Model the fold of this input.
Amino acid sequence: MNVQRNIYQIGAYLKHLFTSWNTGGEGIHSPYLFYLVRMLVYDDNRYYSWREIEEARRNLLRSDETIEVIDFGTGGKQSGGKDLRRVRDIARNSLEQARVGEILFRLVNYLGHVQQRPLRVVELGTSLGITTAYLAKADSRNHVTTFEGSPEIARIARQVWQKLHIDNVQQVLGNIDDTLYKVRDACARNTIDIAYIDANHTCEATLRYYDYLSEQAGECSIFVLDDIHYSPEMAQAWRKICAKPEVTTTMDFYHFGLVFFDKHYLRRNYKLRL
Done:
């Protein structure tokens, strides 16, 4: 299964290279989206908190601690399976790359500047908490709710946030297929400004999570779907989301996709390179 998935991912990446474009945002009709792309991809400004977060990543990559992991679904493993893994191996295989974390940080930072208020951010799939740190560190006034199924992974993530002095994160522990729909206060009381979906990597689950969260999306909300070319199933889920009637513009960066709901935007799907 892993070999087949790797072959698929190589083919998907090559196809993306040949069908995407990198023009510094030229050709994007909306001025807002043009400047958003310029800021996300081409902004060279560095932030002090990034160094702290990446130091936390390096510590995880050096950790020999072994923990019990519950896997609730990656598109190829039985849901709820348990095994023992070293933290360093989880960090190497599961953590989002720094480049994507920086883009998420800029996205939260930019939307907060545009909205001129604290944002409500929802993350499905905490992992070891590095991506959560990027989402939370952009502005300590924002409220980040993150869902994680594996208790030991969640514990390591909390240790990471404590060392980074992050206190604007609410962690919801348990199988997301259960907790997302039970903990309504976590995401249904207010509009979700940014949703980052990186959980069960199956088409059915991804569409279910999206449909539920999109009910709380506003016109200015931005949804980020990770690993949209992880497998044929995830690619199918991405195509179906792009075709949703409430979606106006989407951007495929290969590693992740952005979904916009503003009715002022032209209905168009962009393929862009990082």
Summary: The two ends are 28 Å apart (CA to CA). Residues 2-271 form a domain with the Rossmann fold fold (CATH 3.40.50.150). Residues 2-19 form the longest helix (18 residues).
